[in-house]
Amino acid sequence: MNLTRRRGAKAIFITLGVFLTALALTLNITWIHNNGRRFALDIVGVLLFGILIAGVVLNTVFLVREIRRNERQDSFLNAVTHELKTPIASIRLYLDTLARRPVDDQQRQRFYAIMREDTDRLLGTVETILKAGELGHRQRTGQRTRIELYPLVANCIATVLNRHHLKPEAITLASVPGDVRLYVMGNPDDLRTAVLNLLDNAVKYSPNGVDIQCRIGIERYTWVVLSIKDTGLGVASRDLKRIFKRFYRAASNDRVKIKGTGLGLFLVSTIARQHGGSIRAISEGVHRGTTMLMRLPLSIANNSTQRETA
């Protein structure tokens, strides 16, 4: 209901803006026609007309943006409410079952496993929300360490495989040929959050089977590039840049409902920027898969560090 009202309000504001612009244009042309010989008045009229048009256009733009922002926030609140209530209701149900009637040990262990999964899901949602707030207010400067990217990504892959009960071949990882270690300077927890969100997103948007190819490479000898390619639902061209905005979620297929809060890729984008890097999405269209490319500055070791790691 709120979404329908806001769409109606958006249409009203756009129509009003177009009407006022047309009215101002008509009045200005009439003014010039009736006072064609008064050059000074013409100049004043044109200036006032320009100011009026600019004000109407800016007002319409700001109103439409505010309506869209409110729509995204409402969508976020609905998604978070669902992501919080669903595991809580599930845990409550199993606890009530255990309290009301006796169950055998095998069934009890199954209940415990389900409740642990629901607890992990609940904790993940809370951590995502807290992380988004933390990154939004954190200064870019801070204590950072030199991190080898391959082990960090491999650890994240193992976590996602276990979290989603996937076979090892569902997510593969390749790096540059040879015994080359690629390092970046950064916050390990933040980078782990970014990689986990990218992997979780790839799994979530592959409802017909998970086949994810990860690769770590070098670009122009100054950048480390993490590529995560899936064969899932893909992204429409109009959404390739919007999906990294806070609360934004691409329109889902009516047959496939994807759960989420709209914060995952925003976190990835924020973390990449705070580390001096970037993130972008590549997709040939809906149902053609997506490739996420995260670039981070390559950290070159000095001679003493090279001897220690050799």
Largest sheet features: 5 strands, mixed
Structural class: alpha+beta
Count of discrete domains: 2
**CATH class category name of the largest domain:** Alpha Beta
User: What sort of overall outline do the alpha carbons produce when their principal axes are compared?
Assistant: extended
The name of the CATH superfamily of the largest domain reads Histidine kinase-like ATPase, C-terminal domain
Q: In the CATH scheme, what's the topology name of the largest domain? A: Heat Shock Protein 90
Determine the N-to-C terminus distance: 63 Å
Q: Number of helical runs?
A: 7
CATH architecture of the largest domain: 2-Layer Sandwich
Describe this structure in words.
This protein has two domains: 1-137; 145-304, Heat Shock Protein 90, CATH 3.30.565. The chain is 57% helix and 13% strand. The strands form two sheets. Strands 2-4-5-7-6 form a five-stranded mixed sheet, with helices on one face. A two-stranded antiparallel sheet has the order 1-3. It has helices spanning 2-34, 39-100, 105-137, 149-163, 188-204, 264-274, 303-309; strands at residues 145-148, 171-174, 183-186, 212-219, 223-230, 278-282, 290-297. 20% of the residues are buried. The longest helix has 62 residues, at 39-100. The model is unreliable at 303-310 (pLDDT under 50).
